[in-house]
Design goal:
Distance between the termini: 25 Å
Shape: globular
Length: 350
Amino acid sequence: MAPHTTDAGTDVPHTVGTEAPHKEAREDRPQRTAAAGGAGPAEQEDGAEVNTGTTIEKAGVPEAAIPELVIISGMSGAGRSTAAKCLEDLGWFVVDNLPPALIPTMVELGARSQGNVARIAVVVDVRGRRFFDNLRESLADLETKHVTRRIVFLESSDDALVRRFEGVRRPHPLQGDGRIVDGIAAERELLRELRGDADLVIDTSSLNVHELRAKMDAQFAGEEEPELRATVMSFGFKYGLPVDADLVVDMRFLPNPHWVPELRQYTGLNEEVAAYVFNQPGAKEFLDRYAELLQLIQTGYRREGKRYVTIAVGCTGGKHRSVAMSEKLAARLVSEGVETVVVHRDMGRE
């Protein structure tokens, strides 16, 4: 297992089996548009015009040439531009604020690029809200064309978003004559359905730019796309539930090592603490049965095209029981061929 990267007061992500790379990044700023050309028809090498309204099937483009597509969306101020810049650094063709109705056209143009545009990332946000109703229609169109698409949703708490907007002294794009919190509430409601459809939700409330890039690198930097990626996150219930969790389990049915004086100062990463946790009645049985349940869930996720899952494992403070169980559960997932990242959200807060 790779060593932990620690930053006081922040998430501690590490990839089981490989260490997530950390790259330098600039502050979150509007992403440059990388799309070439204007609204007119594209030209082939022989000079013949290509009607951009023609479907991929009618154009006779082989399915192997269809680009991979990632749609980046989420709350304003949550780090969309940083996520897009990370994909651009990884070689993706990034288009910022593209109207959703034009996404299928962008994919068609990439399919005709003879492999020069194999991966496309599109940033969709509320600046294009008059086009936002077209997004679901565009996604359905892409599905009929067998386009591999993923939705990455950047989430953050209201408090964190307010601080960020006040820090840059800019209004929220939806606040109008109201307050920043009014704009945030309106945006959450507008994006609610899209968040539910997302393949990957990243909560950036406590992440800095470098940690967000590390999360994106961990998910997209691999040369081969795995069938399923998992994040196993330990947390403390007294600090609140992780907002980006798909599955939540509670370890508070096990005795708390906090009340054992010789174990209190350590964490679930300590061998003695882990041994104490798994020597308790029900601990090993829970691990075995929950791992079996996850096998069933994995099969369903793969069948439905969901490639990312976040499993939150909680105890009272997020220091002992949840940490020990997260490590064991992550190791079990890795042994089953699931690429797994472990995050100890609250370890070190006490």
